[in-house]
Write a structure and sequence with these properties.
Blueprint (H helix, E strand, L loop, with lengths): L8 E3 L6 E3 L3 E2 L15 H13 L4 E3 L8 H10 L7 E6 L1 E3 L5 E3 L3 H15 L4 E7 L13 H12 L3 E7 L3 H8 L6 E3 L10 H10 L2 E2 L14 H10 L3 H12 L12 H8 L8 H18 L1
Parallel strand pairs: 3-4, 4-5, 5-8, 8-9, 9-10, 10-11
Antiparallel strand pairs: 1-2, 6-7
Helix pairs in contact: 1-2, 1-9, 3-4, 7-8
The protein binds NADP nicotinamide-adenine-dinucleotide phosphate (NAP).
């Protein structure tokens, strides 16, 4: 794989961190339900090594995946880390023994979360940390995040965190955080069928801030659409490749972190960077969100 095909490059604003626009999301490397070890630990290591060998230099993770498991697999597969690899992690949640996801947002929780990430990843400082607001299940909810962002800004001053991002947030929360610290990326739920953030993406693009969709392939409910399948068939590609290529075309500040535990799917996803979609095809794909909103309403 030629890394020039991984969607081109993007530099996080105010940083020297430049990544390929197609990266990798590590959440699928833990066991079922993002809990415990994977069925095939060696396979997980292989997926990560294959991604980096193909030119991927942006990996998204969290210490609450597993918990700890995903970070430990990343360390096993890739440490000592190659120059230029940007590992982005997130804080704001913890897992309970019943596997539920609970907020972990006190200053003590956030500080402990940074140290968990440092220890399990084997790092002295975290390159980018997203504050992941718990909001509702997979969507943001209005409310101040100033206290948590201030804690992260303090950890940044101490040198444990180099840059700050946000996840599962509203436009108002982004603006609130920017009064406290620089924000280099925003990670929210967004894909062909789920386009609540269309306006936010434009706003972040104007500021040069990365928008990193989670669930780019639909997450726990994989994208399914007859239009998507028909477009993919016409292009000789898979529906997932078209979904990723659409995101790359959508805005130049969009970075991809599709998640997979499979080398075959990884290769398929990376190859999406080679797909060019015509304006007519983009128009067809744009109709999918309207159709799925009509089904939801
Ligand atoms: N900030 C947040 O709140 C948040 C929330 C969720 C996720 N994330 C991050 O975002 C990343 C991406 O999200 P995600 O992994 O949940 O969802 P996703 O990338 O939308 O989809 C992953 C699912 O699609 C399957 N898949 C991947 N490539 C495929 C392909 N080429 N063909 C068919 N199926 C394919 C995967 O299964 P296989 O393993 O079988 O390929 C997995 O079930 C995560 O890895 C995580 O790092 C962040």
């Amino acid at each position: 794989m030629n890394e020039a095909n991984l969607g081109g490059r993007f530099t996080f604003p105010g940083t020297s961190l430049t990544v390929q626009r197609i990266g990798y999301g590590a959440m699928q490397l833990a066991g079922p339900g993002v809990w415990g070890p994977p069925k095939d630990p060696d396979g997980a290591v292989t997926v990560l090594r294959e991604a980096v060998a193909a030119g991927v230099n942006h990996i998204d993770t969290a210490d609450f995946y597993g918990p700890h498991v995903t970070n430990q697999i990343i360390r096993k597969a890739l440490h000592p880390y190659p120059a230029g690899l940007v590992i982005v992690t997130k804080l704001g949640a913890r897992r309970l023994p019943d596997q539920s996801w609970q907020p972990a947002i006190s200053p003590q929780d956030l500080t402990a979360g940074v140290h968990d990430n440092l220890r399990n990843l084997g790092l002295d400082a975290l390159e980018i940390v997203n504050y992941r607001a718990m909001g509702s299940v997979h969507g943001p909810k209005e409310g101040s995040i100033a206290e948590q962002v201030t804690v992260l800004a303090d950890l940044r001053r101490k040198g444990l965190v180099r840059h700050i991002g946000l996840s599962n947030v509203t436009a108002a929360q982004v603006a609130e955080a920017q009064k406290i610290t620089d924000v280099v990326c925003v990670q929210n739920n967004y894909n062909l069928a789920h386009r609540d953030d269309d306006g936010l993406i434009e706003d972040l693009a104007r500021q040069g801030i990365a928008y990193v969709p989670f669930f780019p392939l639909g997450g726990f409910t994989p994208l399914q659409s007859s239009t998507l399948s028909a477009v993919a068939q016409g292009l000789g590609a898979t529906p997932m490749q078209v979904a990723l290529a659409w995101l790359l075309h959508r805005s130049s500040n969009i970075l991809l972190i599709p998640g997979t535990s499979s080398v075959a799917h990884l290769r398929e996803n990376l190859a999406a960077g080679q797909l060019t979609l015509s304006p007519q095809t983009l128009g067809q794909l744009d109709g999918i969100a309207a159709a799925s909103a009509a089904v939801r309403d």
